[in-house]
Amino acid sequence: MLGKAEEAALLRVVRSGQLAQGPEVAALEREAAPLLGQIDGVACGSGSQALLLALSTLGLGVGRRVALPAFTCSAVLHAVQWAGAEPVLLDNAPEGIAPGMAELAAAGPVEGAVLVHPWGYPLGPSPWREVATTVIEDCAGSVGASRDGVPVGATGDAAILSFYATKMLCAGEGGLLAAPDPALLERARDRRDYDGRPEWAMRFNFKLSDLQAAVARVQVARLPSFLERRRRLAALYDRNVPSFGLTPVVAGPGAVPSYFRYLCWARGDISELLAYCERFGVHCRRPVPVTLDALLRTTRRPHVREAFHRLISLPIYPSLTDAEQQRVLEVLAAGPVPGGMV
pLDDT tens digit string along 215-240? Predict the structure, then answer.
C-alpha cells in the first residue's frame, strides 16, 4: 500500500543525488530493528540476502545441519542451501501450520534452526532452543506479530525481515538482519560490501539503495495503521467463514498475529473452491505457491501434503476495501464446500 508519503520520500532521495547506500539506509536500520525487538540492524537487498548473511555470519554453513519447516516459502530452503548447510526439513504438526517439534527432536542434533513465524502467526521459541544451538527468526511475513507481549524477532540469535513488494512493509525489494550482538552485526555489515577493504575475506554485494530505504522508512512508520486494518479484516472473517465450512487458523494463547495471510482449514481439497473463486475475480490462494509435484520433490512429509491440499489463504491487505471484502464473503458463501456439506 503506497501513497503520497512514499512518493515524497523517493523524490527527496532523487533530488539529493545520493541513490546508493547512504544515510537513508542507516536511518532505516535504526528505525526498523526495534520492530523485531532489537536496537540495530543491517539492511540488505532482499530478505533472502538477509537470511543468507545471517546464516553465514553465524557459521551455519558447510558441515552444519539447519532445521526449517518444509511448508514455507522456498526462499528459506534456498538460503540454507546457498550457505552450504544441510537442510533438515520438518513436517507440519497434525492440523497445524507450524512444524511438529517431536520430529525435530527425533532428527538428531542440529547446529541451527530457522524459526519461520508462518504467515503472521507468531510461534514460541522455547522448543527450538531445546534442540538447536543457534536460532534465526524469519519474520519476513510476521513483522508486527507478538507472543506474550514479546515481538517476533526478539528472542533469536538473529532475525530477518523482508521489504519485498508483497510483504507487510513494501519497498519493492529489500531486507533487514537484526541481532542483539553488536559484534555479529559488525561482521555482517563488513560482509555486506566487498569494496575498499585492506584485507581479503569472503564478502558480498548485498547492499540496499537509499531509494528503497526511503520508501521502507515510510512503510515502517505506517505499520501500526497497516496492522489495525489487517486485524479488523480478520475479525470479520472470523465471524463469517465458519458458516462456509472453513475453520480459521487460531494463533494460540498469548499470540497476537499480524495477519500477513488469513488462513483457514477446509474439510477437503480446496482445488475446486480456488477455481470457483478465481472465476468471480476473488483471488484466494494456497499459502505456499507451488504445485504439489514441486513440493513433493523436496519433501514426502504427510502433514505438509495435507496442509497443501486443505489450507486456504483469503484476501487480506490494508488496501482491501470493506466492499471488496464483502464480495469475498459473498463468493465464498455461494461456492462449493470442500469435503462435503455444512
Answer: 999 999 999 999 999 999 999 999 99
Query: What whole-number distance in Å separates Cα of residue 139 and Cα of residue 280?
Result: 33
**Contact partners, residue 186, CB within 8 Å, separation at least 6:** none
C-alpha cell at 178: 537484526
Helix 322-334 to helix 271-279 angle, to the nearest 10 degrees?
130
Residue 137 CA to residue 72 CA, distance in Å, equals 13
What are residue 42's phi and psi, to 5 degrees?
Answer: -125, 115
Side-chain-side CA neighbours of 297 within 13 Å: the count stands at 6
Q: What is the pLDDT of residues 83-131, one digit of tens each?
A: 999 999 999 888 899 988 877 777 788 999 999 999 999 998 888 888 8
Q: Rounded to 5 degrees, what angle do the CA atoms 8, 143, 152 make?
A: 150
How many residues make up the chain in this entry?
342
Strand partners, 175: 44, 162
Confidence of residue 291 (pLDDT cuts 50, 70, 90): low
Concatenate the DSSP letters of all residues of 148-204 into one string: TTEETTSSSSEEEEE--TTSSS-SSSBEEEE-S-HHHHHHHHHHH--SS-SS-----
- Tell me if 310 sits within 8 A of 265, measured CB to CB: yes
* Residue pointed to by grid coordinates 512518493: 7
**Strand, coil or helix: 82:** helix
Domains delineated in the chain: 4-220 (3.40.640.10), 223-334 (3.90.1150.10)
148-207: pLDDT as tens digits: 999 999 999 999 999 999 999 999 999 999 999 999 999 999 999 887 777 777 788 999
Q: How far apart are CA 263 and CA 260, in angstroms?
A: 9
The x, y and z cell numbers of residue 95, run together, are 492440523
